[in-house]
Design a protein that fits this description.
Length: 312
């Protein structure tokens, strides 16, 4: 996902990243998926290549056309949206969509792994042309970059199976909460939950939440018992419940739904091209196929917009 990933406020990596201690999982193959013992399957079916749209390709700046590719920054610790599979390949919902967007524009997508908080600076320095990493569209982010919406996600919470600490989602005061650094969930703890705890005369969430650079470490902290609850984007929590082999359970309802956006440099001429590509993928069925593949169709939207958060 400002550095805040509002629900990335961002946006658990692949099996290999989770393979530690009780999360050590053995990979095996099956029809259409790569599975892990006691864990979520990693879909391997391919999304058919899409044809370039000449009208959209004409919107691509000449220097990008000549290079033939879009360099995309992505924090690859956020399954099922973007992560590395057991062979180290960058995969996920955002990756499949990014590849298809580039194809619509007559380009190829070059996904590069990056720290979440490094992606917006990388866009601003032209290290990346796009950022696709479960960035929730916010007014604060729109002041730094342009955002083209493509998905909707909320925030969810997870606890150890059986909720042994009797955590209540509406009252996390004094509880040990794990979040990924730079996400809106991290901002939520610091800027909303802890001030509310202070007003109520209750103890704060320690450290404004335990913050980790990688979402995989957030999940591991909860599984190990270091933390009592974790907050992350709804598709990430849903995937983590499966990926951790039943060691975790969802707490309460998903809240705060908001759109994800592809990020581009402020005023980038690519904005209209990317928006048009997303809308075209929605029309030709590719968008639905990608979301269905990764089990995140509940987050589908019908219209892509540029910087809608600042228009409200």
């Amino acid at each position: 996902m400002s550095a805040a990933r509002t629900p990335r406020l961002r946006p658990i990596a692949a099996t290999a990243a989770l393979a530690a201690g009780s999360l050590l999982l053995a990979a095996c193959g099956s029809s259409g998926t790569t599975t892990t013992s006691g864990a979520a399957p990693i879909p391997t079916q391919s999304i058919p290549a899409v044809q370039a749209d000449p009208a959209l390709a004409a919107l691509v700046p000449a220097e990008l056309k000549s290079g033939g590719k879009l360099v995309v920054g992505s924090d690859t610790s956020y399954a099922p949206n973007e992560f590395k599979d057991e062979k180290g390949r960058i995969v996920g919902m955002d990756v499949d969509l990014g590849v298809a967007i580039a194809q619509k524009l007559g380009l190829t997508a070059d996904f590069q792994s990056a720290g979440f908080t490094d992606i917006i600076p990388g866009i601003q320095s032209n290290k990346y042309q796009l950022g696709m990493s479960s960035f929730t569209d916010t007014k604060e982010r729109e002041e730094q970059v342009d955002m083209v919406t493509y998905f909707s996600a909320g925030t969810s919470a997870a606890v150890k199976k059986g909720n042994p600490d009797k955590i209540v989602l509406d009252d996390l005061c004094g509880k040990k909460v794990a979040v990924q650094d730079g996400t809106t969930q991290a901002d939520e703890v610091k800027d909303t939950r802890n001030p509310d705890c202070a007003k109520a005369g209750k103890p704060a969430v320690p450290n404004d939440g335990d913050r980790f650079a990688l979402q995989t470490d957030v999940a591991q902290s909860l599984v190990s018992g270091r933390d009592q609850v974790m907050l992350a984007d709804s598709p990430v929590i849903d995937y983590a419940l499966k990926q951790t082999g039943g060691q975790l359970e969802k707490l309460g309802d998903t809240y705060g739904a908001a759109p994800y956006g592809v990020i581009l440099a402020k005023g980038s001429p690519l904005g209209k091209a990317v928006q048009g590509a997303i809308q075209s993928l929605m029309a030709d069925g590719t968008y639905k196929a990608v979301l269905d593949k990764w089990g995140v169709s509940a987050g589908a939207i019908s219209t892509s917009e540029i910087n809608p958060a600042g228009q409200g």
